Predict the structure.
Amino acid sequence: MKTVTHWINGKPFGDDSGAYGTWGSVTDPATGEVTAQVAMAGAEQVDTAVAAAKQAYATWSTSSLAHRITILYRYRELLNARRDDLAALITAEQGKTHADALGEVARGLEIVELACGLGTALKGETSTGVSSQIDVASIRQPLGVIVGISPFNFPAMISMWMFPMAIACGNTFVHKPSSKAPSASMLLAELAAEAGVPDGVLNILHGDEVAVNALLDHPDVAAVSFVGSTPVARHVYTRASASGKRVQALGEAKNHMLVLPDADLDAAADAAVTAAYGSAGQRCMAVSVVVAVGSAGDALVSRIAERATKIKIGPGNDPTSDMGPLITKAHRDEVADYVAGAAAQGADVILDGRGFTVEGLENGHWMGISLLDKVSTDSDAYRNEIFGPVLCVLRAETYEEAMAIINGSPYGNASAIFTRDGGAARRFQLEVETGMVGVNVPMPVPVGYHSFGGWKDSAFGDHRMYGSEATHFYTRGKVITSRWPDPAETPAGPDLGFPASH
Ligand code: NAD
């Protein structure tokens, strides 16, 4: 059986003497079969990885920007050449379709490209002559060892949100991907080494909360980037902050799509189906709630149902599949329970995906399409992130009622409005309490040079992912005030008054 080890100091780490830590299993969600054993780090392996990153920091942080950027350009080329292989690894362990996995890699590459252009973002500011013979320069310097912790649903993209920017800024990195889909990160590390990223600059540690907590507590870790569920995001934020680390921790989502009666309902239905069921709903930017206003409701639900029944569900490596399985059997059962619960709590079940399976692959983690109408805001299906192919439709009489529903959610990741009314769209983008907003765009994932992140229980910490906020997160400011007097000048002598500009 395949084994996935840690990656420390530029090579696979571990040997038969047990230096790996313990072992976990990786399952193919389409077959339900265990396909690999993955090393699970304990405190000892965490120490080794952090020590490697700390040692590499001394040289990497003082290497020239030109050197770092040249390596990142080479990395970009290697990733581009191997995007198909990366996508295949994602599909085999996460389950999403190959086309979807290629899309994930493309969005990750965007951030590598952003990192290649980091010179502009890192260039600092200078003011000359702020006082007599005094100049002031603001510069930004790297932090040290950064830890990145990522979820199962984007095994490559979210890693690529984090380490390329962090190492371009001069930091070194220890990445802890989800042990449910660990292989893509190993290829990312191998290609980084091939591109010339020095040993110890990028390390991969697999594991669970044992590894995470050891990383959060480690005195040689300067900052933590996290993406995952809200309870873990809150834990990571609290625990790492308590030991003085800088933390950004992105959590769960319940993304609402508000549809006004004047919207193009065919376009809105296309968008809702794409955004709700793509990647089997296992996207933090998935639309999981449609709030239909007034007469939009019935017309929209019938259009969504008509389109959703045509979705072909099957293994991700079958090019005819539109949607793959869910990550684990346990998660599949949780999603099914939400559908059962919603029916018991008064929703109309328009489409019920619970009985779905794929012939010959009955042990796969299959869940068909579910569409729930007239869902109440009190129901469990509305209140919790389901993270599966289940779309909840809520009805509202007015825009104001719909907005009150959306802003009443504890989550604030993303939202969208579908309308032909520019005034309503403008009002929505100003009033809605989410970090990302779409206007006739269902999944408003910002491009690389803007930043990604939510509000409220969807994100903890002050910095968003990528864009200029990443440069800020992965560096700290220093302001240098200097004076170079004319050597011929006679010193003025001591003056104990408060220094004033003149
Ligand atoms: P998760 O929270 O279970 O795991 C995320 C990471 O934390 C993994 O590396 C995991 O090993 C580790 N972890 C898990 N439990 C832990 C614990 N108790 N203590 C310390 N570490 C722990 O999330 P997941 O199931 O892998 O991913 C899906 C979740 O991620 C969803 O809730 C989704 O909304 C969220 N997500 C959010 C965004 C965003 O940008 N806001 C993006 C993608 C995914």
